[in-house]
Amino acid sequence: ICSQTSQAQRPKPNYDESKVPEFKLPDPLVTSEGEKVDSAEEWQKVRRPEILELFESEVYGKSPAPPKDMLFEVTSQKNDALNGKAIRKEVSIYFSGKKEEPRMDLLIYLPAKATKPVPVFIGLNFYGNHTITEEKDVKLSDKWMRANKDKGIVDHHATEKSRGTSASRWPIEKIIDRGYGLVAIYCGDIDPDYDDGFKNGVHALFNSKQKPAPDEWGTISAWAWGLSRAMDYLETDKQIDANKVAVMGHSRLGKTSLWAGAQDPRFALVISNDSGCGGAALSRRRFGETLNVINNAFPHWFCDNFNKYIDKEEELPVDQHMLISLIAPRPVYVASAEDDRWADPNGEFLSVKYAEPVYKLLGTSGFGAKEMPKVNQPIQQQMGYHIRTGKHNVTDFDWQQYLDFADQHFKGS
Ligand code: GTR
């Protein structure tokens, strides 16, 4: 961590497009041996594993294999939730197979009128499952949370005041009306979002005594691993169509949805909402948030090897367009917001664009856009993108696009 800098030394963020340094991106379709990849087979056999391994060892850190005996327990079920519109379930996953921590709680809403297994969106949230709904009988999270008065967090724990405080980001009724289910998980169930030397959360199950090695999982990898464990459960739930699971995340949790989708092909569709640096945005642009800033502010998110590239982005063997390419040929959607310059909308757009050759090689429609679209004018091919007006947030406009995109890919409309 030699090249980390103190708060005072940190460079000011650049928001001037003319000051973006010149850079050359690694080509997703040229192997580390310099060979051009020109068949789907070569991509799958040679180049994709190579890129995946680089993201594991240099960016997010390697995760362990799934535990052998997980325990799934349905702790509540209500068949007339949301005024009869939805079936609501709460399911606990005990990673060790025993009824002890760490435990992850799923809050699941499914359309009550469904006659067959339904496609679902799955997403991590920042302050507990009870924050995404106004329904008072959803269990209040008992886990550690980051301080936030507006969210009713007192002494790092949720209070009754915190119910529904993130409901605007999760339009459950709209999702249900469109025929989809929603699976919610509090990210802190998997790994609390602070730098504790990796003693808590699921890290404790595997390496409780020592800090992960420089190429082993940080918190984003742990969160992504947790999403895959939720997927393990979804595959056993007969009310859910496990072949149509869309993983969606905002900001740090959008970085996570991309990494989860990149590693686990069971996620059939992947959505990044305003994920920015270490998510969809190209690191080499150094626009808004940079590797220097993010690794200092959140030293636990990435693996330690990522620190090697602070102020040396050009030495990265990958850039974030290659993270998107790992999702190919599955549909991927990246969303930006006009006022969210910290997340570098242009860099997010360019990642999609520069991942397109892989999508094309695999025989999909790709992306089709050469230039950044105008605000509020979504592009929806195999790859989707929009930049909407407004701030860093998840809005109804965003969800409208995700639902349309999912309809196109899951229902053929
Ligand atoms: C910011 C961080 C961003 C983004 C955001 C969030 O503080 O710099 O990378 O992750 O938090 O998650 O809301």
Structural write-up:
- The chain has helices at 40-60, 172-177, 187-190, 203-206, 219-234, 252-263, 291-297, 320-325, 345-361, 396-411; strands at residues 71-81, 86-94, 103-111, 118-125, 153-154, 157-158, 181-186, 240-250, 269-273, 332-337, 379-380, 383-388.
- It is α/β, with parallel strands linked by helices and 413 residues long.
- The longest helix is centred in the first third of the chain and has 21 residues, at 40-60.
- The radius of gyration is 20 Å and the shape is globular.
- The termini are far apart.
- The structure holds beta-D-galactopyranuronic acid (GTR).
First-residue to last-residue Cα separation: 50 Å
Q: Please, how many helices?
A: 10
Q: How many extended strands?
A: 12
Biggest β-sheet description: 10 strands, mixed
Radius of gyration: 20 Å
Structural class by sheet pairing and helices: alpha/beta
Which bin fits the share of residues in helices? 25-40%
Unreliable residue runs: 1-5
Q: What global shape is seen?
A: globular
Strand arrangement within the widest β-sheet reads 1-2-3-7-4-8-9-10-12-11
Measured by DSSP, the beta-strand proportion falls in: 15-25%
Average the pLDDT over all residues and give the rounded result. 96
Bound molecules: beta-D-galactopyranuronic acid
